Amino acid sequence: MNYRFLGTTGVKVSELCLGTMTFGREADEKESQAILDRYLDAGGNFLDTANVYGRSPGDTEKVVGKIIAGKRDRVVLATKVFGKMGNGPNEQGLSRLHILSEVENSLRRLKTDRIDLYYLHNWDHPTRIQEALRVTDDLVRSGKVLYLGVSNFAARHLMKSLCVAEQRGLSGICCLQAQYSLVERSVENELLPLCREEGLGFVAWGPLAGGFLSGKYAPGGKPNTDTRLAVSKDPQEASWKNKATEHNFTISAKVKEIAAGKGRTPAQIALAWLLSQAGLTAPILGARSKVQLEENLGAPEVALSQEEISDLNKVSATPLLYPYRMYERTVR
Question: Can you give the pTM of this predicted structure?
């Protein structure tokens, strides 16, 4: 396992991040422990969770807290705040009230005295970003949070957050987590270049597009009833309807072709392409089982040729929007 700096911090994280969304849900506690242990044995040290994950909000953090017992200092632990944690009017968002309540709940569930990387999980339109950044600065100064990240922010929101933090002398943002894969490359327009220019880490969620790039699917088929693509309540980002397009099946076919030629799996090829992208810190692996994790751990060993990367870039390219298509014609 290779390691990369998390943005401009002095912290090194493994090039593959272990996501825990399946823990306590598709993977029971025993399987979750096996997945974590194998990941640590492979040299992984970057663990991602969120307060809203689980059959009920908070359940996954509880599982993570149990299985990292005695191993806490071996992982850079990331969790998130924003999502709805209950039915009360103040049980979601990025208000001072909600963040201060939820950071204590996350610390308790995770059985730890610090959160290494705390993500603002979404942009909160009603709450001024100054409020969120002030309270997270307080948490960093107290030692309960070490570093601050954001997730699912638009480029303008990320840039605004960076400017507010710098102007007010608040603890800065070191990392963005956003969706990125061969079938979702829109971050290449602004978010990924912005992270490179500002020295932010970039962590990719959904690197296999909810399993679509794993090679299991073909045009006319349907996902198994227990897969994320089948059961997702998100009509846009993780649904079969969103992923099963002619364009995406063309991408999947090219991934399968390259995988067959190299004696690798489609998932390994899709992850290897992502690892080749400039500015990426780590993709998040969301394994349901130790066997699935084992396959994904082989991705860094895959050496894609420039021709293979170019072929994947071409087949997965999306039409350039204005003003980016103008930039293509005006390079000096």
Answer: 0.95
- Please report whether residue 308 resides in a domain: no
Q: How far apart are CA 51 and CA 186, in angstroms?
A: 27
Say how many domains are in the chain. Answer: 1
119 belongs to the catalytic site: no
- Report, as an integer, the average pLDDT of 228-232: 68
Q: What crossing angle do the helices spanning 306-316 and 246-262 adopt, rounded to 10°?
A: 170
Q: What six digits make up the tokens of 67?
A: 């299985």
Which of 53, 119, 180, 217 is catalytic? The answer is 53
Alpha-carbon torsion 219, 224, 225, 229, what sign? Answer: negative
| Beta-carbon contacts of residue 74 (< 8 Å; ≥ 6 apart) | 40, 45
Report the percent of the chain where pLDDT is more than 70: 96
237 is a domain residue: no
Paired tokens of 143? 């030692």
Look up tokens 């296999």; give the residue: 208
CATH code for the domain of 178:
3.20.20.100
Phi, psi of 87 (to 5 degrees): -95, -5
Nearest residue to 41 (alpha-carbon basis) of 290, 212, 275, 279: 290
Range of the domain at 208: 3-214+267-302
